[in-house]
Amino acid sequence: MKSTIVRFLTVFCVGLALWGCSSGSGDAPAIDPTTGRHPANWIETHWGEFRKDRDQCVSCHGSYLDAGQSGGISGVSCFSPNRGAQVCHATGPAGHPAGWGAADQHGRSGAMAAPAVAAGFAYCSRCHGALFDNGPARSCFACHTNAPHPDAPWHGTTASGTNHIFVDQGNAPECAKCHATGANSTLQPTTPAPAGTPAGCFNNTLCHGAEAGHPAGWSDPNSANFHGPRAKAADSPSGGFSYCRRCHGANYQGVGTAVSCFSATVGAFSCHNGGAPAIAPHSPAPWRAARTHTNTDTTNAASCAACHANGANSTRQPTTPAPAGTAAGCFNNTLCHGSDVQPPHPVAGAYLPSAQHGADAINRNNNGTGLNTCQPCHATPASGANPRFNVPRGATLTAGCETCHTARTAHPTPWLIGRGTTQGVTNQLRHSTLAVLATAGTAVTNYCTLCHGANLDGAGGVAPSCVSGSSRLNIAGVNAVCHFNAVAVKDSGTGLFNIQTGCVSCHGNPPVGSTFPNRDLQHTEHLFPNVTCGSCHSGAGYATVLHGNGTANVVLSATFQDKDGGAPAYNAGTGTCSNVSCHGGQTSPPWPSGQINVSTDCASCHAYGTTQFNSFSSGDKRHHTEITLVCSECHDTTKLATTHFTNLQTSAMEGPASSTLLDSLNYDPATRSCLFTCHIGNENHTRSMTW
């Protein structure tokens, strides 16, 4: 009986106390009067009742200020560290822990953490509402104005981790409330997940697909979706290295669910160091071969500066570092390259004139530049043979050098002065210029063979054969082939080309065609021993400054100066030569229309009584002026043909005239007399009549 009374009093007292709890605030009861318990959602809502009237809790829970006196008759202290699985207030009923307002507390360590009794977005929703703005606690939108998290794109890289990649994937169901099938996101799955699929970060139920948030093939170098070009693209919200950093961290070491860019492998694919841990977030140095930095958009310079400021971690340092505070740029001495107008050079238009980049491309100034220097940035491959200079550069050179130059070339076409235009400008240089540079000889080897093959025949090269002719070179106005013979003979010992054979490769020996550059004209008639191309084109042959300039420069060699001493000259207007020994100092017939019959037009070159080398002033005057009015009356043209032009390069010019006399004259060299009957008056020549 006594025990029954005790239990009654106890229940009465507790009920009385609970009544007090339920009525202290004057609002909705905090205690169910039937069960004597708090409502089912008391954990989520009790803090609100506490804030309304803290003292209403004291009667059951004791002090909310002194942990030693807390607990009361309920035995539940406001300083309890937990209530079952529920984490409570180990330091007292002060709401969230001190500092909870900091992003790394309520964000990274709270809402973004793996769902738990006191973590995860679901935990937040218990007090802040299912939509985080409709709960009894303060709306999350009170601070995060557009969403219950930082504003889009929520890709921050701060140390506090204000980046959604740090969100534990277990929160996906909470994310789905706003982002199902990519809602409220710039990224939607291309193939939405089947209905009923549990929300997940990478299963097409929210924003990302199955491959770590990237498109399929992101790690496959053979895929169109390979990540390299995306990383090297212009810096933007969807490309460039800064785009990578949003998920992979400021140092690319990987954070959250994003892997490290220094990883050895990802799935079945090796990463940046052939399967070994990488030392850079890109391909190994020099990164100028098949994988090259030269096609990285320069807007990524700030990202590059993280590792390469002032040439750090590079083989190239700017000779004059940029002033402090200079914004990072590829060609302003802040990273690896300077701003001098040499390769590497500014990307501005100042370098586009051929006088700038063209001269450097052929190392015209012998300043250490040259096509090989252009190759790492402008060609594929970046080194070695058979490059194609079509690597896009910026918004202008979308096809690299081939944007202005013909496909598969990095020079004007045709590369002849005065022929053709490049970008509307008449070509100013010619390919033979290479041979007169300070690097003559080797220049041909180094540059021409780079694309045209080791023997300039196109074998193994990306460019056509130099022995290919107009049909492939498409040279306007040139119908005949160029270099129809070997371009040049390469000396296996020196590796240089024997340019002496260069003339005949285009012009023939002699020229026998009807169109440039193999035009016969009167060349065949001038094909004599010891007469070369240089006899009439002195200083204008292959590898000279006058060669290949669109004009057939005639510069007569001093070797053929006449005896009067006048300078040999060619009149381009009349096409005639003067003061040349081979024409006896007389003005030659016009080239190419004039003709000389060497058997009958002797006087065209031979004049009586002059001081020229080939004058016939010797002997008895009567023989030349009276008796033999026609040269062939005494000189045998058949004999003459064998000796006529045998020594044109000398003052003798030809064989002795006496050797060409007709046999019928019975000429005796010893007595220099003839013995025959002259048909003029039937006068008998006797030995007494010396020549």
UniProtKB/TrEMBL annotation:
What's in the keyword line of the UniProt record? Signal
Q: Name one GO molecular function term.
A: oxidoreductase activity
> Signal sequence: where?
1-30
What protein does this entry describe? Cytochrome c
The keyword Signal is annotated on this UniProt entry: yes
Q: Which organism is it from?
A: Geobacter sulfurreducens (strain ATCC 51573 / DSM 12127 / PCA)
In terms of superkingdom, the source organism counts as Bacteria
